[in-house]
Give the backbone structure.
Amino acid sequence: MKLSELAGGVPLGVSADIDIAGITADSRAVKPGYLFAALPGTKVDGAQFIPAALAAGAVAILAAADAPVPDGVAVIRDAQPRRRLAQMAATFYPRQPDTLAAVTGTNGKTSVASFLYQIWREQGLRAASVGTLGVHVDGETRPLRHTTPEPVELHRILDGLSGEGVTHTALEASSHGLAQHRLDGVRLSAAAFTNISRDHLDYHPDFESYFAAKMRLFADVLPEGAPAVIDIDRPEGARVAALAKARGREVWTVGREGAAVRVSDPRPEGFGQRVDFSFEGANYSVTLPLAGSFQGSNAAIAAGLALATGSAPDVVFPALETLQGARGRMELAGQAPSGGGIFIDYAHTPDALESALRALRPFARGQVAVVFGCGGERDTGKRAEMGAIAQQLAERVYVTDDNPRGEDAAMIRQEILRAAPGARDIADRRAAIAAAIAELGRDDVLLIAGKGHETGQIVKGHTYPFSDMEAVQKVLDGFARAETPPV
């Protein structure tokens, strides 16, 4: 591709148009003929890598207005180089699936994207989802490093999916991704809001900055006139709906007070629930094979997105009965020898932990137990909040290590325990899980919260293999072997 096509005109000082073989913001990935995007970062300024990129064969540079670039080098300067990079990536990788829906919010993004993907597949559509758990397409999972990939990677993925014949794709839109313009250039058909609560305040200066980053999806990225599906029951739902409407988006509200998709209060059935939905005057009673009232909300948002992008209601609502929960999202991991249910959830914020514990309460005729910790080098203020929530909503609380990273793990646990004085302090996560399962009664329910789908534990710069699901299975296998009489 010619530089003029990529940049919308040949940069000043360039005597001849240049062929661009690729684009990257990683100087280590530069190859001959590449354009290197020297992006300013929170810790490192990409401009310092311009010499290395040129030495590796870069023939053009995208940089901020004041970045030092050697004379004679083709340079595109932009006050918002991250946004410009996303636009260039969309030009370099021009193909995208016909229908693209993005989901933002603190909790529920992964579940909604997964549910929408499953609803589309149930209709026989070539569908994919892109997010925390990777790229799902045709039953295959391809790994990703970020919930919302960097723009060059994201547009390469979308171009590739379109080339494979994928017509429908669900995307998770993280606050980091929106703040860093990673989704700019994506031709969205619809977008959705799940909820918002305290999270990522180690990155965003305050809650309002975090909220503003999320709202970029509706204010800037979603085209005018496109549908915005919003859970109106959430505290900030009305605020989001007002913003989307003011920006000219078509607002679809879902929930108990939803104008587009109305949802009844769920009624537990085993480890699932029955939920009644209404849409355009018709009622649909659905047996949802998922635990937790918030999963009913997630299913309603996914249904709203499917309907808003052209799917028929007599196909969408029956498809909800076939949904499988996303990995590590209120996932039934098994039953203790006593019969008590064991659930794994990614809940790592105060709001998510509260929602998960409240959601499991109807399934416990006995007590609710919870195993959780908090990550190191992240928002420290939520530790005491989560401790207090666990103490209030669970009869038995086991405080353990999450991903302490570079912090003192014992100090993290102490910050939680100060707000949960009745909790047990068990540093080793495997031991905490084993103790909780061993003490689980027949009518009890156990929530193992915080890590969800993760398969590693980060301690002092090292990632050690660890999976909550595998830990649960080893404990249950141990009980099974102990109960099997010798032959």
Remarks:
- The chain has three domains: 3-91, 93-322, 331-483.
- Residues 65 and 483 are 70 Å apart (CA to CA).
- Residues 293-308 form the longest helix (16 residues).
- The radius of gyration is 24 Å.
